[in-house]
Specification:
Layout lengths: L10 E7 L7 E7 L3 E5 L5 E6 L4 E2 L7 E4 L7 E4 L2 H17 L5 H33 L2 H19 L6 H15 L4 E5 L6 E3 L4 E5 H5 L4 H17 L2 H9 L1 H10 L4 H13 L7 H10 L5 H7 L7 H5 L14 H8 L5
Parallel strand pairs: 8-10
Antiparallel strand pairs: 1-2, 1-7, 2-3, 3-4, 5-6, 6-7, 9-10
Helix pairs in contact: 2-7, 2-8, 3-9, 4-13, 6-10, 6-11
Length: 337
Amino acid sequence: MTALGDYQRLEAQGVWRASAEDQRRDVIVSVGDATLVVHDGAGRPLAHWSLAAVERLNPSIRPALYRPGPDSPEEMELTDPEMIAAIERILSAVERRRPRRGRLRYLLLAAGLAAVLAAAVLWLPGALIGHAATVVPAAKRADLGGRLLLEIRAIVGAPCRSDLGSAALERLNTRLLDGKGRLVVLPGGIATTAHLPGGTIMMNRTLVEEHDDPGVVAGHILAEAERLAREDPVEVLLRAAGPVAALRLLTTGDLPEAALADYARTLLAAPPAPVPDGALLRRFAAADLPASPYAWSVDPSGETVLPLIEADQVDPVYAQPVLRDSEWVSLQGICGE
């Protein structure tokens, strides 16, 4: 046994009795590889104890008392320090190797708890953000959109306004979006279009100033309306702001200004997300608007927008006009010089 590697032969005197009713006897105790052997004075073996089963009855007390197992009536009393130290070393080694009751259960419990914690870390933030987005009322969505527009205004300047140009925007909103939401022309900052919570669609002034056909502007508005319909802008905002901001929105009904300012900069830098051709074609058909002018403005080569051009369902000759000529001229001049 490894625990006895330091000893070549280990014997000591002891006092042994077979049971509580028997007389105590002086004996010689020797330790083998796996057993403790009790001999009488003539060297005859009286008992063999398995070292793996030996128990001490009085820890830290001398003389040391041992028995060969929990249910055994035998007892052994030892006073020899070297023998006691050797047996204690053996018992410690056996105890370390003994299977721990319930260890597998604790390991499984720990593994299960770790899995739950990992799932919570991975799933809970997304679930929190999704839930927060679903409970935000329309009035709060409009408020968040308005505050984001103020943050954007601080970066790129105030939205363009003129009496006739703003009236043309309202006419365009009614024509394309049934008067829902709001259309805004920005002096810069975004590539083409972007949207805010509450339904506001923002356009870069270049869309209205650099195209002769109002159908191009109308097409970009419809494409942005499709993006708005496909993904909740409040949820996008909360994903950017993080789960702590989402929790604050749930508990206080508001978001910190810093989160809105950060998201405003992110929104301005983000390119427009792609929209499936089929969804776009359905929107153009519902609005009685040709898709081709929009498609050619996106890709003048026509290569990446060929499905929109070939599957265009609306004939420009018979389509309902987007704006009257005077309204289109007013809209093109909404930003002035």
